[in-house]
């Protein structure tokens, strides 16, 4: 999914999504919820440690 598509799906600006992707600032809970909805995943999936996420290649 492109940044632009995610920003549109989450009703956020592309600039905000790029900043979050680059680790700039801390997104609010509402922003995390919007991103999760835009991606079609649970909010927990976005905040759990990478090691805890299932490996799709396994």
Structural commentary:
The protein is mainly alpha-helical. The chain has four helices and no strands. 7% of the residues are buried.
Features:
58 residues, mainly alpha, 4 helices, globular
Quick summary:
This protein is an all-alpha fold and 58 residues long. The protein is built from 4 helices and no strands. Helix 1 (3-10) crosses helix 2 and helix 1 (3-10) packs across helix 3.
The major pleated sheet works out as: none
Number of helices: 4
What structural class do helix, strand and pairing data support? mainly alpha
Percentage of residues assigned to helices: 55-70%
* Rg from Cα: 12 Å
Distance between the termini: 22 Å
Mean pLDDT: 89
What is the H/E order?
HHHH
Number of DSSP E strands: 0
The geometry reads as: globular
Strand content: under 5%
Could you list the spans in which at least 5 consecutive residues all have pLDDT below 50? none
Task: Lay out the secondary structure.
Elements (H helix, E strand, L loop, with lengths): L2 H8 L3 H8 L7 H11 L3 H5 L11
């Amino acid at each position: 999914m492109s940044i632009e598509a995610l920003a549109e799906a989450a009703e956020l600006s592309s600039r905000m999504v790029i900043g979050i992707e680059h680790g700039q600032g801390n997104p609010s809970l509402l922003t995390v919820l919007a991103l999760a909805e835009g991606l079609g995943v649970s909010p927990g999936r976005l905040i759990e440690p990478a090691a805890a996420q299932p490996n799709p290649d396994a």
